[in-house]
Every structure is written in C-alpha cells, then in structure tokens.
Amino acid sequence: MRGLLPLGNQAIEDALNSNRDIIAPPSSFAYLISLRAMRKPMLVITASSRAAEDLAKEIRECHADTLEFPAWETLPHERLSPSSDTVAKRISTLQALQDQSRNWVVVAPIRAVIHKFNAQIVNTKPILLDRGLEFDLTQLQRELVSFSYTRTDLVERRGEYAVRGGILDIFPPDQNHPIRIDFFGDEIEELSYFSIADQRTSGSIANPVKILPCRELLITDQIRSRANELAGKFENELLSKIANSLLPEGMESLIPLLVDELQLISQSLPSNFETVFIERERVVGRIADLLATNEEFREAAWSSAAVGGKAPIEADSTYIDWDSLVQELPTYKDFRQFGSDEDIFLEINPIEPLRGNSDRLVSIFESAINEKRKVIFSASSKGMIDRYASIFRDANLPVQLQYPFNAAPTSGHITLTASAFRHGFSDDDFLFITERDLTGSQSAGGEKLPSRRKKSIDPLQLKAGDYVVHEQHGIGRYVEMAQRSVGGVVREYLVIEYAPAKRGQPGDRIFVPTDALDQISKYIGGDAPTIHRIGSGEWSKAKSRARKAVREIAGELIRLYAARTSAPGFAFSPDTPWQRELEDNFAYVETADQLSTIEDVKRDMERPYPMDRLICGDVGYGKTEIAVRAAFKAVQDGKQVAVLVPTTLLVQQHFKTFAERYAGFPIKVAGLSRFNSVKEAKEIVAELGKGALDVIVGTHRLLSNDVQFKDLGLVIVDEEQRFGVEQKEQLKKLRTSVDVLAMSATPIPRTLEMAITGIREMSTITTPPEERHPILTYVGPQDEKQISAAIHRELLRDGQVFYIHNRVESIDRVAVKLKELVPEARIRVAHGQMSENMLEDVILGFWNRDFDVLVCTTIVESGLDIPNANTLIVENADKFGLSQLHQIRGRVGRGRDRAYAYFLFSADKPLTEVAIDRLNTIATNTDLGAGMQVALKDLEIRGAGNLLGGEQSGHIADVGFDLYMRMVGEAVNDYKTGIVETEEVSHECKIEIPVDAHLPEEYVDSERLRLDVYRRLADVKDPMEIKPIEEELIDRFGPLPEPVIALIQVAVLRASARKLGIHEMIQQGKNLRISPIKLPESKQLKLQRVYPGSMYKSGTNVALIALPAKQWSPLGESSKLRDTSVIAWATSVLQELLS
Asked: Going along 12-96, which residue ranges are E strands?
C-alpha cells in the first residue's frame, strides 16, 4: 500500500511537522504515521493490545520498518509467565532497534510502554547457527539453558530443546516450526525444520538461524547467587528453584528483586524519535487503571496468604506513572477523532458504512471517477479482488488490478488491491474504500500462519503404579521397564505385577517383551479396578461376559448401518468456483484436521447414499466452519439445509455466522426459535415449504410436524449430546433419506456411540487453531478481592467477563454485590426464566460489547461464541459435573488473548471426594484439546456409564475402555463379513528367536520414547508399514545401530507371520516351531525336501523346521546363533511354505 503515500498534500505535511494534536478519522492514522515515518523514527502508543496489533498491521502495509512491542498478557507480579511468542516478539523488536540508522515505527500498547523490563535481554547477543560453523555441543547446551530453554525428550512447545547423539532439536519462540540441527563431530552439517506432529524433517533451511532467549529473566551466575541469598530471607519456592538453575513458571515476577538494571522501550529508540498517542485521554485513564489493578492483585494475594495461600514478595512496581512517562518522551502529539480550536483538523473524511449495498458503492465510484479523483478499493485477499473486479466490470466501471500496491494510483479507473486496512478514508483528491466498509465484516486476510499439524506421536505414558490391561492375563499394575540378558541376548521387558497366587505372598510378576506391547493398554474405566490373579479364570469370565454383551449391541448397530447404506440418497456435485471463493474467504487458517474433515464430509456428500458423520472436536476448534461449507455445497445443488441446535441463543449465533459467511452470495438464511414472533415463524415455515429459504437454523422446533421442507438435502446437528431421545428418534427417520452431519464438542464416550465402532463415520479435530493459548485455570475458595481483581484485569484489556451463578432466585443479588465490588463495570443478568425478548436483548448486548460482565446461569454452556469474553468466574464449581465444567470453560479463550478461568467453591463447606477429583482434573487438564483427557477422566470418576445402552453397564469397568472398544469394533466387523466367531480370537504373535533386538539407551535415552517406538512396531499389521517407522528413526535419532536393525527385521517378520494367521515362531533347540500352520500334502513334501529333518504335526497344525546346521550349537556358544541371518532364514521359510 505504499502507493497511498504520494497522495499526501502540503497541508498534511505541515500538520505532521507541527507539535499540535491532529484531528482525523481513525482509519487514516496508519497512513499519517507512515507519512511521518519517512522523516523520523516513531513510537506509537495505543490504549489496548488489540488496537496496537491492528494498527501495526496497517502501518506495515505502507512502511516496512514497523515493529510491534506487545505487552505481557500477565501482570508483572503474577506467578504466571508471559507466553513465549509474546517474549519472542519483544526481544526481536529490541534486537532490531540496535540498528539506529533506520526510521523504525514501534507500535506498543501503553501497558508495554510503562513496563520496565530487564535490560540484560537488550545486550544479550543471539546465538547464530549456520552450516559449517563449529560448536562444542555441551557448551551449546549450556548456552541454551542460560537462554532459559528447557531440555526435554520430545520437542513440542516453544522454548524446548532435545539432544540425541549428534542431533539437536530446538523450538525458538520466534519461529513457526522447530529446527533440527545435525552435527558431524563439532561441525553443523545440516539445518532443517521439522514437524511437531510426526517429528519428521519437513524442509531444509537456507539462511543462518538466530536463537533468541525465550524468557525475559536469564539465569546467570549473578542471578543464581542473588536468588540463593533472597531464598534465605523469604520462604519462596520460586527463589529456591532459580537458585538451583530451574526455570519455574512465573519467575519473571521476581525481575525487580533479582535484576539491577531495568529500562523502558523508549530508551531503546533512536534519540530523535517522536511519540504519537492514539487518543491520549484514554491512554492516561488506562495507566491509572493499570496501577490500581496491580495494587488490587497485590492485596488479593495478601488476603489469600491470610487463609493459607502463598505470601507475595514485596518488590518495587515495574510500572511507571503518567508524569514519569512524559519525562521519558522528548516530543509527543495526539491523534484523535474530536478536538478543540487549538488542534489541527485535517480535511480527511471517514467512509460512511455501506451495509452491503453494492449498488450504492458503484454509484459512489462512478461519481468519483467523473470528478477525476483517484479511486482505490482494497479487499482482504487475492480471491476477493478478482470477485470484486468482475462485479465492477459488470457495472461498466474501468478496473485496474495492482498487487502489491506500490505505485501511485492514477485517475480514470478503480485501482483494486489487497491489504490489511480495515476501513478507508477520502479527501478532495482521492477515495479509498475497503471491503469492510462495504460488507461490515472482515473476511480472510493477513499472512496465514502455518497451522499446527495433527499429533501422530503420542507416547504411551506409563508411571510406576499405573493400572494396565494385558489381553491374555487381565488387569495388573505397571512396575518398570527392565533389560534382561538371556544367553547373551539383550531384550527389554515391561514388568507387570498381578495379585499373589497365595494370600500373604508378594504379587506375581510377568515380564512382557516389548515386541508384544500391542497386548497392553492403559486401564481406563473405573477408580480402582480389581487386580487379577494369573491363571485364575476371573479374567476370561469377565472377557466372555463383555463379549456376549458386545455381540448383541453389534447386531443392532449393523441393522441400522444396512438400512442407511442401502437407502437411495442424493449424490452432490463436485465443488464449484463459488465454493472455492467462499473457502478462500475464511478469516482464519484452517488446521490440518479441519481440512481433512472438510474433505471427508464432501466425499460423503458426493456418494449416492446418505451421509451419517459425527465430528468430534474440542470447544472452539472450528466445527461451525465445516458446517458452513457443507451447507453451501448442498445449497449449490438446489437443496435445503436444516441446522439443528439445542438452545435459542445458539440459533441467534449460528444465524449470524451463516449470514455473514454467505454475504455477497444469493443464499437466503433464516433462524427459527422462540425468539421469533408467531407471525414471523409462520412466514418462515411457509417460505420453507415453497423452497424460498435455503438454510434454516433452529431448535427442535424444526422437527415439529408443521415444518415441511420442499427439498431437504442436509441436516446439521450441533452439540448432538444435548438432544433427547425423542428428537434423536425423529432424526433417525431422517438419517435413512438425507445426509446428516452431527457435531459434538465434549467427546464424552457415550456420545461417540457408533462412531467408535465404525457404523457412523467419525472425524476428530484435535488440533487447536493457531494463536490459541491454553486457558489459565485457578481453582480455590471464593474471595471477593480475587473476584474484583479478576474483573478489573479483564476490563483493562477492553474484554468481557462471564460470571456463572446457577441459582435464578439469588442471581440478581449477586449482580448487585458485583456492582458494589466493581462500580465502573456495566453488569447485566441472563437466565432461562427470562422472556424471549429480554434474553435476546441481553445476549445481543453482550455480543455488541454494550456491557462488560454477564452474570448468568449455565444457559451459556452450549456453544456461545464471544471471542472478546476472556475471563470466566464460576461460583460453587464443586456442584458441576466434569463435562459441564469443561464446556463452560470453553466459553473463554476463543480469541487470541490469554484467557482466565476461576472455579471457586465456598471456603466454609467441606468438598466431597468426587468434587475434589473433578476440580483437580479441570485444574490439571488445561492444555489445548484437553477434552478427551477430561472425558476419559469423567468415565473413570463416574465408573463406566452405559456407552451404547443399559445392557453393557459395568463391562467397561471389567475389561477397560480400550479393550472394550476393540471388542465392539471386532464384533461389528464379524457381522459385516458374515462370520461370527464364537471363540475368542488371539491377536498375539510370539517371535522368540535369539537375536539382539532392542533400542539401546544410548540411541534413544528416554524411556517414554522407547515405549512409543516399541508400541508402534508391535501394533504394525502389514510389513509395508514398517519402512516409514525406520525412516523416522533415522531422521530423529540418527543411523540405526545393529540391535535396532535387528528389531526392525523382527517387526517385519512378526507382521508377515501375523498376516498369515501364525501365532508363534519359537526357536526350540535345533528346530523352529511355527504354529498354527496348515500345510497340504504337496507342501509337506516340499518341507521335507527343502528342510531335511523337519516335522509336521497335522493334528495340532504345528511345523518343526530344522535349523541349518551352522545356525545351531548344543553348547549355545555359536556366534552365528545371534546373527540376524537367522531372521532372514525364518522369513524365507514363511515364503517357501505359504506363498
């Protein structure tokens, strides 16, 4: 957008050179700052972080040397560390500012400008990595620790590093992907990015890489000794951890105590810099609020210390006040919308909102072209430019596409470009209008971040004492992983303890070889299961009871499945250009899961029988967008779409979302709920019947008999777990004739129903959208100071607060009490007993940011999406169920700001054990996508509830969730193939050949990662699946040592044997015993001819193959015995006899 700069005139130039405040529309501020930055470096100060972020994007369009200096999302004394990407942006900006020759524009919220930071990070030189440079790996690790990186066995988050032999993995906070560094000796041989998901390298890095510190407190010897000294005075675990070189969460709160030199951002700028405030009055007010809230949190910490909490350490405030700030700034002026005679009013006008009226836009452009003004129209993406170009050409307007927009525009036509500018402006000489001025909403745009990948490496984490299920022996307790050497052959085993055979004796232990890890799963299904005795028969009884129940369920499922696949459905057409246009217009980056789910849904829709797919994804993971695209595809073929949601509030929200996404397309959307008047509802139903409406969003009112569709093609069910049996029955009838797409946010196993078994198709979305942060969760006793401070903190960043009080009779009293605590907050109440109009009014007001705090019941639990609300306070949290707590917490943290959730309980009432369990679970599972862990813990707390009906109650507790799900899957498969097994099928395939086959500790030193590799090799069903695992091991850990090559060969042999239905291949003396194996007479003759001395027992289907003479020694000392050639020989035996 540098083409805008030549449009400046002398009046603007004079105004910018003067010291007086400037009055102009806010949409022109970025343009004016860019003009001034051609002459001087600038510090631009906004009142809020969001305003700074948006303004920086716009300025960067015109002035490349634009930097952001974000504020910490935490308050300086809180025991929470700012996110690593915030720290990276701050440090990158400070490093860039060391080049004082350029006219930098630094955009910062006031919170960052008045915050004194550790001067040490300005002077710290980054570590430069490039091919050919030499580093002592041990010394490099020391430097990374001094830069506050954390060593781990698997790099998954920013600020982590891992070392394996000569390979160093590191995730610098300013990079989008982690980096793998391959050393040859001390020299860097290769630099490449790798994927967090599968840990495979994804692309080579051509340029040198700078490694920046990832925390703002770097632990040097001086800091350590200072912390040690202070730890003696104060009882503080943070200080003692820092003294021991650990990196605790929240250590930045101690910066004023541990660091001598603090500085402000203004001290890093070139000496001739100029400051611009965006609305100075608001900035001054924000400073006062920040200082007050800081003090309030300090008081809340002391009052919490009085009832047993941790006492805060007193330190000087790192915030300065307004008077101190003014002394730091050489010159400053204010940009704002309104002013007095002393200010300079620029002749720049804002653009009136066009509210989607493209005819009016065309007439505005026509008159501007006739007046010889330069006309610029900016959309957010290249796809949208092409679309608008065709609209303007259809209206006979001359169009010129200029992307990027660097040259000055000329008059006589419309210059179309793409930019991050949200709104336009005009003067006598030019007219600049953006897509947002026309539509009122912002579509896709800006740089698309590389999205996170779905996680395919998820190590089987076992701790000593965990309950595990062995498919043959039952439920036991995991003890450890042990190496044993038998006859000179080293193998690794999992040690599992079972109940003792005799009372009073120690427990029996079994050693499970790591190549049989597919027999073991972690136990989920009850609080403390009964540990079985080996060989007692308890386990086989429990399994047969579960298997019997499972078979009945599977038969019912198959009948439903057959009805659906045999019913004729409508095969939708492939994607149209309009479909692609709608998808390009999505304002966020699709995650890999979202894209694959969208593809699955489209593929299902294009099939000739009805779709029945369930989408499971955590709250806020983008399920609605999938629904938007599926509905659009259906409407393209002239079909109608019904979107069924559980609450009236969701009708409003989805109606708004669908209408916004379909803006500019000829699609008619309507909402049907109790918010409609009787007259409106009748009109909507009539239009549906005539086919005048394309998409209808509604509650179960849509399932009423009076609602008739002209041509229904797709039903979308949101929050499926919230619908009752009757509605599900009506939906079942629909399922056999129209496509059904169901969505569920809380993946509580009951709602996974048939999806787990493969009857309904299922897609899961486990990848969080980019720029999401985990929600900071606080569980503790209710305290007024804490509540007041939490609300103030949210108001400081122009955010909103959900306050949950689940009793209608006392909710108004709570609102009055909050008003006394926080007088400046605008507070309103919402609950299900309000009239439709009042409730609609409150919720719409909260959407439109008309008030700050919504005191409400759990009416907001389902799907309400308000990205600006990022603090949640729940009273009496001990009274809620676990999935409810997770759903409620999902109401916040849906935007890019850090969210806070406070689950409070009454301090004077004892908590029940179950409530403590629930609150502990919700406090520990705060990571993104924790829904599944919460769900499985819920299953444990409640004892496996009924998954598919009452019949199987208790069976999950007997055999564990994983094995139960496998049984259901197998039973369904049996019905599908028409072969119903009455006997239990063994999946075990034992390979016992004396070969050194294991993962040496020096190759993979982490027990967790070794377990993961063993598990994946044991799970392999087809020999072809092993090659990618082998390639991954070489990529992640380096060249394969001999025991690992042997391990891979054994895995290939096992997969081949398993495929042929063989259960064991065991070397016994001078024979290799293979069973079961059916050999016809011709093969028996071949056996005798090719392997003389071999035997075949047809009664037991056992073959004893004579080993080659050189492979066997009665003394067991032959070096050949452990040679991997015996594996090659065993593989050739299988091929000879069974090919």
From this structure: 22-23, 42-46, 66-68
The predicted-structure confidence for 798-848, as pLDDT tens digits, reads as follows 889 999 998 999 999 999 999 999 998 999 999 888 877 788 788 878 887
375 and 413 in contact (C-beta within 8 Å)? Answer: yes
Residue in the block written with tokens 């009924």: 946
Average pLDDT, the chain: 81
What ranges in 194-271 are assigned the alpha helix state H? 221-233, 237-243, 255-258
Let me know the angle formed at the C-alpha of 665 by 661 and 671, rounded to the nearest 5 degrees: 55
Burial of 761 (0-12, 13-18, 19+ CB in 10 A): middle
3-state secondary structure 961-1023: HHHHHHHHHHHHHHHHHCCCCCCCCCCCCEEECCCCCCCCCCCCCCHHHHHHHHHHHHHCCCH
More confident residue, 384 or 598: 598
Long-range contacts, 1121-1124 (Cβ 8 Å, 24+): 1121/487, 1121/994, 1122/488, 1122/489, 1122/994, 1122/995, 1122/996, 1123/995, 1124/995, 1124/1042, 1124/1045, 1124/1046, 1124/1049
743-772 mean pLDDT: 58
Look-up of token digits 């004194």: 116
Residue 698 CA to residue 362 CA, distance in Å, equals 36
Confidence at 493, pLDDT banded by 50, 70, 90: confident
678 vs 772, residue with greater confidence: 678
In the chain, how many H helices and how many E strands?
Answer: 36, 46
Q: Can you tell me which residue has the tokens 């160093």?
A: 168
pLDDT tens, 931-953?
Answer: 555 555 555 555 444 444 444 44
Using the structure block, give the residue that is written with the tokens 């050497």. Answer: 485
Q: If we measure between CA atoms, which residue out of 509, 491, 497 comes closest to residue 1014? A: 491
Please say whether the dihedral angle defined by the alpha carbons of residues 874, 79, 619 and 914, taken in this order, is positive or negative: negative
* Cα–Cα distance for residue pair 520/477, rounded to 1 Å: 11
Tokens (6 digits) for 484 = 């044993």
Strands (E), 596-689: 612-617, 640-644, 669-672
Strand 612-617 and strand 739-744: the pairing is parallel
The pLDDT of residue 257 is above 60: yes
Question: 903 forms bridges with which residues in the sheet?
Answer: 779, 874
Residue 879 phi/psi, 5-degree rounding, is -90, -5
pLDDT of residue 560: 64
Are 1066 and 1073 a contacting pair, CB within 8 Å?
A: yes
DSSP string, 325-364: HHHH-SSEEEEES---TTSEEPS-EEPPP-TT-HHHHHHH
d(CA 968, CA 940): 19
pLDDT, tens digit, 9 for 90 and up, residues 831-840: 888 877 788 7
**Confidence band for 424, pLDDT divided at 50, 70 and 90:** very high
* 145-204 residue pLDDT tens: 888 898 888 888 888 999 988 899 999 988 888 999 999 888 999 999 988 777 888 888
Q: Could you write out the three-class secondary structure of 382-426?
A: HHHHHHHHHHHHHCCCCEEECCCCCCCCCCCCEEEEECCCCCCEE
pLDDT at 1058 over 80: yes
The H or E element spanning position 841 is: helix 836-847
Angle between helices 382-394 and 577-584 (to 10 degrees): 120
- The answer to whether residue 564 scores a pLDDT higher than 70 is no
Strand extents, DSSP E, 195-329: 201-204, 209-211, 262-263, 274-278
Query: Scanning the structure block, which residue is given the tokens 């305003």?
Result: 51
Neighbouring residues of 566: CB distance < 8 A, sequence distance ≥ 6:
609
Q: For the ranges 66-80, 136-150, 310-324, 508-522, which has the lowest average pLDDT?
A: 310-324
